[in-house]
Write a structure and sequence with these properties.
Blueprint (H helix, E strand, L loop, with lengths): L1 H4 L5 H7 L4 H16 L14 H6 L8 H8 L6 H27 L5 H22 L5
Length: 138
């Protein structure tokens, strides 16, 4: 209990209280280190998914792990799929630039073709938010 009560006392005070012998202080530290080194590991460690290279090797067999699934869905920002998606985005912006003033300025929102274009644009921009979250960064 004497050692525990001195836990927050500076090192010099410990040495003086123990008779000035630095070896006693060193022994206390070594005993504590041994005590904690022998402490059993009671925490269960999670099973890690395979690394990216292991997933690539198992790509043909579709290992089914969540990491492989996420890697297949992720899109590199400079990939062909992302380039095509961005090109379609430019087209959809052009459609919105033309259609929105016509819809609100000329009140043509009841025409079936205009409603279809509105819904296509709304669905596209909603999906675009999801696709943007699935784009990796470099």
């Amino acid at each position: 209990s004497r050692q525990i009560s001195q836990a927050f006392v500076p090192r010099e005070t410990w040495i003086e209280d123990l008779g000035g012998d630095e070896d006693v202080f060193q022994d206390i530290l070594e005993d504590l280190a041994e005590k904690y080194a022998q402490k059993p590991d009671t925490q269960s460690r999670p099973v890690l998914p395979p690394s990216a290279s292991e997933c690539e090797e198992q790509k043909s067999s579709h290992c089914g792990c969540a990491r492989c699934c996420r890697l297949r869905l992720m899109m590199h920002p400079q990939s062909r799929r992302r380039l095509i998606w961005d090109s379609v985005s430019v087209f959809m912006i052009s459609v919105d630039m033309i259609m929105l003033p016509m819809i609100y300025g000329m009140d043509i929102s009841e025409v079936l073709e205009v409603l279809v274009v509105e819904w296509i644009c709304t669905i596209f921009w909603s999906v675009d938010m999801i696709i943007t979250f699935m784009t990796r960064y470099t």
